[in-house]
Amino acid sequence: METILLGTGLALGAYVFIYYNFFRGPRCHNARSLKGKTVVITGGNTGIGKATAVDLARRGARIILACRSKERTESAVYDIRKESGNQQVLFMKLDLGSLASVRSFAETFLKSEPRLDILINNAGIIADGVTEDGFNMMFGVNHLGHFLLTHLLLGHLKRSTPSRILILTSDSYRSGKIDFGAVRVPSKGVKQNIQAYCNSKLANTLFTRELATRLQGTDVTCYAVHPGPVYTDVFRHVKPWLLKVFARAFCRLFFRDCENGAQTSIHCTVQEGIEPFSGRYFANCQVNEVQSHARDDAVAKKLWEVSEALVGLTE
């Protein structure tokens, strides 16, 4: 019995040591105030987005949670106001799987809000099927919805300089590829869903790179943010259910919680002096180099042009 207890104690000790030294990741220690600043966070009602919203609300920012579910987001608004003591936390409806909803959100926001200092394209999904507009669900939500949203809000960002755009990506971009012939092909099954997610994260990374090129000289900067391995609600649409159960159990043990996962987003929002790294990829609160296929300027430019056509921004 003593041997079992000793072994269990050593195993738990090893787990705690490994988690806090290797899994948890660094924290942002910048205490910068954001009073007078307006922040839009997509998917800010849960997970990394909500944790980011709590931190930025504590800094005094006006926070707009751009989310699909009114019920869940109003509950999150209550939580964030209570935790931060900041009453300037609001809900505006946005469904990134609907280009019409993206346009409606932008119209409402531009009419009601005089400025936009920080846009955090945080929302992400792992799900099969297609969007309302017939695009692969993950390409449509994770990339195209944010692409259109960013374009529609750029005017406000340029009038509120210096301003920033954060685009949450993932280390899974490494396994991604850009297949322009598959943007309307729904993914089915575990393997295809994982590949489609990786593809969408590569699109996020390339989008950030091309966006930075087009924003040169505007005093609007942008950053691709990898939060690290984080246990979030992104797995809620995973099928079959047994895989979902396994994924949640594994991630709860070995992945970061949402507060720790939000640290690089917070860093890229408040850290002074990172403007020269616009368009770059940040992880663990510092700039990182990406693999060559995520630095392909020709593909990034073509992705931009194809995305413009897909969302109706070209004549």
TrEMBL record:
Tree of life domain: Eukaryota
GO molecular function: oxidoreductase activity
Pfam families linked: adh_short
Residue intervals passing through the bilayer: 6-23
InterPro entries: NAD(P)-bd_dom_sf, SDR_fam
Alphabetical UniProt keywords: Membrane, Oxidoreductase, Transmembrane, Transmembrane helix
Protein's name in the database: Dehydrogenase/reductase SDR family member 13-like
UniProt organism field: Pleurodeles waltl
Origin organism lineage: Eukaryota, Metazoa, Chordata, Craniata, Vertebrata
